[in-house]
Design brief:
The chain is α+β, with helices and mostly antiparallel strands and 528 residues long. The chain folds into 3 domains: 160 residues, no CATH class; 149 residues, Muramoyl-pentapeptide Carboxypeptidase, domain 1, CATH 1.10.101.10; 209 residues, L,D-transpeptidase catalytic domain-like, CATH 2.40.440. The chain is built from 18 helices and 16 strands. 33% of the residues are buried.
Length: 528
């Protein structure tokens, strides 16, 4: 204990010596709490010495840009460290403590630059249910020469743009400013008493209008006095539904009501978090495939345009589709399916125990190991006695209309064995939420997608008649296509923020420093 106390005292002593110049200049007073916040005292000394001990943050644009980036960190709930710094800086600015503000802003800016570097490697751990580790940030080396040059050239604001996840701090500030966060008492929870349709009497109309206004939709043409669900509101509800990935039928049911009630503070947190996630997704729109898991959507970008877009089925919560960046190298027609061990043990064997004819009905064969030529007869195994965890044989499903991969497999080699494929279960694409698979991604209109990929690479597609009796017909692509499996639950599209359900629970964070939420007051949404 005494040893630890000695370390703390020695550290504080060194910190005080490193900040001595700022005490002499009266930038810091004796006992100033700001000194305890400083993490990079030596770098501060060097930067301000280079700047002849002049203020760094004297330009309004630079201050606003820095505070916008820190506001994103604050609202995202990714880092208590940056959230605390943001709030202290606002307090110092409001109290006109210019010198203390300047020192803490520069120190925080150094930390933020280290964060942007660390995020490239640690982002998958941080942005999907984790929190930022201060140790992982502070331990990174940083060449402050670049920062010194930006200060010297009065170009901090432009430099901050390069550090933002979007590359445009001004746009981020507008997005955050667009949230008029109301006090909890002003937001009433609407409970579903019935389904509301166009023409119904609607005593809750003003509250619905208010909720729709909060997401940026123009409600000026909606008659708030008339208590009936009229056409103008109907078309706005349809737009609201599209913004949230819902069926745009204009019917206010449970799903629409869920999003109408969605807390404003949570919208802000999710938006800020997803902006930071954008650091991981550098989409080459000249040639790439992007699968956004919560949106259940695939987009194929070619020569700067969206060449193909379709629905997908992704992994269920117990078997999440992992977030990967891989490359598609081969199209496989009439694929066989080598059943992964986990699926064999958890799904196939229990199904066989329930129905002894399951293997024959679904065209499976059993082999001792992958590549083995000899098939093991299913009736040679006592399925009632076999324990799934002890089963070592392999299942292979033959091509055909029952094959789980359908007629097309889009191969993306990776250690997790995750790829895109067709499916015989086409009915699942009609569902609003489509997290049903065991991890791989099922593609709607896989035939059209395969044809387009071959066409864009100037590869002649095989004729269906030539494929009739063939298995695993592999067609290598001339140019590999990057495939990004992303997780965006909020993004900007055509000037409006799109939201999707957090299907894997990656948006939930433990600490809540702003606590905007709905009050407990509620009433029944009804058409009485």
């Amino acid at each position: 204990m005494r040893f630890l106390l000695l370390i703390v005292l020695v550290t504080a002593s060194f910190q005080s010596l490193a900040l001595e110049s700022f005490y002499k200049l009266n930038w810091l007073s004796s006992g100033s709490p700001i000194a305890s916040y400083i993490q990079h005292s030596n770098d501060l000394e060097h930067l301000y010495e280079q700047n002849q001990f002049q203020l760094v943050w004297y330009q309004k644009e630079a201050v606003e840009s820095l505070e916008t980036l820190l506001a994103l960190m604050h609202y995202s709930q990714l880092s208590p460290y940056f959230s605390n710094r943001y709030q202290v800086l606002l307090q110092l600015r409001n109290e006109s403590k210019l010198f203390e503000y300047d020192l803490l802003a520069t120190d925080t800016f150094i930390s933020y630059q280290k964060y942007t570097l660390a995020a490239e490697k640690q982002g998958l751990k941080w942005f999907f249910g984790g929190t930022i580790s201060e140790k992982e940030i502070f331990s990174l080396p940083l060449d402050i020469f670049i920062m010194a040059e930006q200060i010297k050239n009065d170009s901090l604001a432009a430099y901050l743009d390069t550090l933002s996840a979007s590359g445009n701090v001004h746009q981020l500030a507008e997005l955050l400013g667009g949230f008029q966060v109301e006090k909890p008492s002003n937001l009433v929870v609407m409970r579903s008493g019935t389904v509301l349709k166009r023409g119904d009497y609607m005593p809750s109309k003003q509250d619905v209008i208010g909720r729709i206004r909060l997401v940026g939709l123009d409600v000026t043409n909606v008659d708030a006095i008339n208590r009936y669900y009229d056409n103008n509101l109907y078309f706005l509800v349809k737009k609201f539904q599209r913004m949230h990935g819902l069926k745009d039928d204009g019917v206010i049911g449970a799903d629409t009501l869920y999003w109408l009630n969605y807390p404003v503070g949570k919208r802000l947190q999710v938006l800020a978090l997803n902006i930071e996630r954008g650091r991981l997704y550098k989409v080459d729109k000249q040639n790439s495939i992007v699968v956004n898991l919560p949106a259940f959507k695939l987009d194929y970008w070619l020569q700067g345009k969206e060449a193909f877009s379709t629905k997908v089925v992704v992994g269920r919560k117990q078997r999440k589709t992992p977030l990967l960046q891989v490359k598609m190298d081969t199209l496989i027609f009439n694929p066989t399916w080598n059943v992964p061990s986990k699926i064999a043990k958890e799904d196939i064997i229990p199904a066989i125990k329930r129905d002894p004819d399951y293997i024959g009905k679904h065209n499976f064969k059993i082999v001792e190991y992958w590549g083995a030529d000899t098939e093991i007869p299913a009736n040679s195994i006592d399925w009632n006695e076999i324990r799934a965890e002890d089963f070592t044989y392999k299942f292979i499903q033959a091509p055909g209309n029952r094959n789980a991969l359908g007629y097309y497999k889009f191969n993306t080699p990776n250690p997790r064995a995750i790829y895109l494929h067709d499916t015989p279960s086409k009915y699942l694409f009609d569902k609003q939420s489509r997290a049903f698979s065991s991890g791989c991604v099922r593609v709607q209109h896989a035939d059209k997608f395969a044809a387009l990929l071959l066409q864009t690479q100037q590869i002649e597609a095989p004729k269906r008649s030539d494929l009739k009796d063939k298995v695993n017909v592999k067609i290598p692509l001339k140019k590999k296509i990057p495939v990004l499996f992303t997780y965006q639950t909020a993004w900007l599209e055509d000037g409006l923020i799109q939201y999707r359900n957090d299907i894997y629970g990656y948006d939930n964070y433990g600490y809540d420093s702003y606590a905007y939420d709905n009050s407990e007051e509620s009433y029944l949404l009804t058409k009485k």
